[in-house]
TrEMBL record:
SMART domains: AAA (SM00382)
Matching Gene3D superfamilies: ABC transporter ATPase like domain (1.20.1580.10), P-loop containing nucleotide triphosphate hydrolases (3.40.50.300)
Keyword annotations of the record: ATP-binding, Cytoplasm, DNA damage, DNA excision, DNA repair, DNA-binding, Excision nuclease, Nucleotide-binding, Repeat
GO BP annotations listed: DNA repair
InterPro entries noted in UniProt: AAA+_ATPase, ABC_transporter-like_ATP-bd, ABC_transporter-like_CS, P-loop_NTPase
Subcellular location: Cytoplasm
All copies of domain ABC transporter, residue ranges: 1-288
Protein name: Excinuclease ATPase subunit
GO cellular component terms attached to this protein's record: cytoplasm
GO MF entry, a single one: ATP binding
Taxon lineage: unclassified sequences, metagenomes, organismal metagenomes
Main location: cytoplasm
Length: 294
C-alpha cells in the first residue's frame, strides 16, 4: 500500500499494487503516469524490494550499438570463427584488426557539405560490411562473419543451436518477440518498445522481482500483443509483479489491476481517478478510458 504519496504533478495520492499480477497505469498524456511509476520505484527500492525498471531511454543508442553487442555474444562468435579458421579473433571485429581502413568500421562515409546537410554514402571498399575484404575469405559452417551478422535472431538461434553460450541470449531475444531483428541491427533503428524488450530479455529468469516498464507495446504489431502478454504471464508465474504505463487499449484491457490518472494533463491531472479491475472499470462512471475499451 502506498499512502499519501507525491511527486511532480502527483499530489497526496494513496493506492495499492497487487503482488504477482499485471498492474496497468493508464490515463491521458501528462496526467501523472510516469510520476506514479517513479513513486512506486522509489518506495519499493527503499524498502529493499528488487525492482527492475525498464524505460525507453536506458539503452545506449549509437551506430556501433547493435543487438549482438548488447547480448554480449559477439566475443563467442568471433572465437568460433578464430578456432575454425586458425586465425586471431580480432580479425573478426570491425573495431580491431578486421576494420575496413576506408570507413573505420562504420560501413559508411560521411561527407561534410558545409552549408548543406551532411551526405552519407556506402563505403566503396567494404560495400557497407565494415570489414576488410580479406576477412570474408574465412568461414564457419559455410558462413562468413558478414553472413552471420546479417541473420535474424531466429535464424541465428538455429545456426548456433549447439553453442549454449550463444544460444541462451538468442533464445531470450526470441522469447521477448524480437526474433525478427538482425544481429548487426543498430539500436538507433529500434522503437522505444523494442529497446525495452531487448533489455527485458536479460531479466527473464528473475523470481520475486517487480518489473516497471514504460509503454512496452510501443512499436508492436497487434498480433504481437498476445506474445507480450504471454511473456508477462510467464514472469508472473515465477512470482514476479509487473507494473506498466500503457496507452494500448488491447493491453490495458488485459491488466489484472488498473490505476487511472487524470482527469486531464498537467495542472488538471495528478489525481488517481480509478483503481480496480477491468470489470470494475466497465461498471464505473469513468468517461476517459472506459468508453474505448474493447
Amino acid at each position: 500500500m502506498f499512502d499519501d504519496q507525491s511527486a511532480n504533478t502527483v499530489n497526496h495520492v494513496s493506492f495499492k499494487i497487487p503482488q504477482q499480477a499485471l498492474t496497468v497505469i493508464c490515463g491521458v498524456a501528462g496526467s501523472g503516469k510516469s510520476s506514479l511509476a517513479k513513486i512506486i520505484n522509489q518506495q519499493l527500492t527503499q524498502s529493499g524490494q528488487d525492482v527492475i525498471s525498464i524505460s525507453q531511454k536506458e539503452i545506449g543508442k549509437s551506430s556501433r550499438s547493435t543487438l549482438i553487442t548488447y547480448l554480449d555474444i559477439f566475443t563467442e562468435i568471433r572465437h568460433l570463427f578464430a578456432q575454425t579458421c586458425h586465425v586471431s579473433a580480432a580479425l573478426f571485429s570491425f573495431n580491431s584488426q578486421g576494420t575496413c581502413p576506408n570507413c573505420k568500421g562504420k560501413g559508411v562515409i560521411v561527407h561534410n557539405m558545409y552549408f548543406m546537410d551532411n551526405m552519407t554514402t556506402t563505403c566503396e571498399l567494404c560495400s557497407g560490411t565494415r570489414y576488410r575484404p580479406e576477412v570474408l575469405a574465412y568461414k564457419y559452417n559455410g558462413k562468413t562473419i558478414v553472413d552471420v551478422l546479417a541473420m535474424t535472431a531466429s535464424q541465428a538461434l538455429t545456426f548456433f543451436k549447439k553453442q549454449p553460450k550463444i544460444k541462451q541470449g538468442l533464445q531470450a531475444i526470441n522469447d521477448v518477440g524480437l526474433g525478427y531483428l538482425k544481429l548487426d541491427q543498430s539500436f538507433t533503428t529500434l522503437s522505444g518498445g523494442e529497446l525495452q524488450r531487448a533489455k527485458l530479455s536479460k531479466y527473464l529468469n528473475q523470481k520475486g522481482s517487480v518489473y516497471i516498464m514504460d509503454e512496452p507495446s510501443a512499436g508492436l504489431h497487434l498480433k504481437d500483443i498476445d506474445l507480450l502478454l504471454a511473456l508477462f504471464s510467464s514472469l508472473i508465474k515465477k512470482g514476479n509483479t509487473i507494473v506498466i504505463i500503457e496507452h494500448n487499449l488491447n493491453l490495458i484491457s488485459q491488466g489484472d489491476w488498473l490505476i487511472e490518472t487524470g482527469p486531464g494533463g498537467g495542472k488538471y491531472g495528478g489525481h488517481i481517478i480509478f483503481t480496480g479491475t477491468v470489470s470494475d472499470l466497465k461498471q464505473s462512471d469513468d468517461e476517459i478510458t472506459k468508453p474505448y475499451l474493447p
